[in-house]
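Continuing from yesterday's entry. The apo prediction looked reasonable, so today I'm repeating it with pyridoxal-5'-phosphate included to see how the binding region is handled. Same sequence as before; SMILES copied from the compound registry.
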Amino acid sequence: MIIDLRSDTVTKPTAGMKEAMFSAPVGDDVFGEDPTVNALEEKAAKLFGMQAALYCPSGTMTNQIAIRLHTRIQTEVICHKYSHVYLYEGGGIMANSLASVKLLDGNLGKITADQIKASINPDDVHAPETTLVSLENTMNKGGGSIYTLDEVKPIRKVCDDHGLKLHLDGARLFNALVETEESPADWGAQFDTISICLSKGLGCPVGSLLLGSSADIKRARKVRKSWGGGMRQAGFLAAAGIYALDIHVNRLKEDHARARTLGVMLSKLPFVSEVFPVATNIVIARLDRISPEEFLKNLAAREIKAVKFGPDLVRFVTHLDFGDDGLEDFGEKINVFHNY
Ligand SMILES: *Cc1c(COP(=O)(O)O)cnc(C)c1O
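Holo prediction written out below.
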């Protein structure tokens, strides 16, 4: 059996999820007539205490639409230098919104209110106007690290004091919330827009949600249309999202427990110099004496898949299709590396 830990996007829909998908009532969502899409959008908006939501094909689209809403040509976005919105969205901030980026450094991928405050551009002819701060929770490149509400509230205050919008790339927000036990509504209250991925830990085949005010989501719907993201009988896909919000949130804790065990296993290998603190379902290991390519090749020979995540880093992500059997199998297979 192949153990695929490259990402939590590799999961296949469960039997229960497929049943929900096949039996979904559908209509033409571009006409606003798909009852299942409408139900998913309403359910998510209500959960986060936000006015409205928009179902999109991907998290890249929901993030990029949010950035489009909160910027104009010659304005600037503040984010961490390892943010998904900057690193992994094809240069979309520039290509889709003609905006500039201010990249901040920070521990485990996180930035602070003080750093943000110091990075807001002055009202000066030389500088692009700062209009948006974008945070990521959990932070992928920080090893699945978590922002708490106590860290976000001072950031919200800086944004309010300076007239900035605040967006959350919450691709894995539920992974954070099941650990902190903070409520989605308390998070909804802090942000202008939130993007949530249904196709990561929540196990859907497709889909992300953008949450925000009714006015912002109305504009977002038009941006989505112009980018070709208006889908027709999308309720078959949205049904998976409803199912996942009901059934797949609490079980994320299991993925976290397995990730912690996996982190301990990796930390015992002689060529692993460091494992990032395992906060959720992402495990990042730093290697010495052996390159990521060599380690990954040796893992692949044992039917284990992971990804390179930097010059000396590899990443493993636990998910719905990685159970206790997989974990045990993983432990046995990596035993051979103890004499490496
Ligand atoms: C996966 C991911 C996204 C969105 O990715 P898509 O593949 O476009 O759905 C956004 N942000 C983070 C942190 C992610 O991990």
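Comparison notes:
- The pocket of pyridoxal-5'-phosphate is lined by residues 58-60, 63, 84, 136, 140, 169, 171, 197, 199-200, 208 (CB under 6 Å).
- DSSP finds 14 helices and 13 strands in the chain.
Will overlay with the apo model tomorrow.
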